[in-house]
Amino acid sequence: MPRSKRAKVVHLTKTQKKGKELTLRLYANVRECIEQYPYIYVFSVENMRNNYLKDVRTELSSDSRIFFGKSRVMAKALGDSPSTEPHPSTSLLSAHLTGPCGLIFSHRDPQSVLSYFSTFHPLAYARAGILSTRSFTLPAGTLYTRAGEIPESEDVALAHSIEPTLRKLGVPTKLVKGRVELDEPFRVCEEGDTLGSGQTTLLKMFGVTMAEFRVEVRAWWVKETGQVEIVERGTDDGGGTKGNRSTEVEMGAEDDEFAGFDDQG
Cβ neighbours of residue 82 under 8 Å, at least 6 residues apart? Predict the structure, then answer.
């Protein structure tokens, strides 16, 4: 007997959503850290990779705390106006909480934090949509795992099992006596190309990295003086421009997500 199209799967268990709970917890944690740490840094991330962000957390874990959550919730906790900010001028940081960004609460001074991030730029494999930073070509002849990026004496030939995958990605390879070979060079990408998924897969297969994980400090707040320093692009020497009330962020109308927040601070 054919199965009825009206048949529906009824789950006997339900998972309760924790959106509101997590939002309230993030707000409360940010408010608590404002009281505990002398410096607050707003940072942005370029070419986000979770494993590298974990490295940053590990490095700063002894004297700092990092939040990488909802920007609007963190901005609300910092204050959206002088009347709601927990400390003088913390609301000025809210204007910089846009895009992929977070907060660092720390006992480290700005020079130390900026110096660390200026040297922490680990390489990562490119993802679709970014611009290639260099040209890359697969050489003719037997293909090796690094495709000529290192001397052949230090490399090993590609496994024959990978050959079908290469052909699916558009590489005209063939098997000759168990070795993967190309009759002529194959250009994977040119410098400045917008990379597609097939290109990024090939780059990863041959160990070519074209992305760089970066953390940039946008601004910081000093509890002792109540001042906000804004970091200009390309500045990593601890300098900045002092914030003032004219740079405040204008928050939109409050919704139910933020109901009761001002009573918790």
Answer: 88, 91, 245
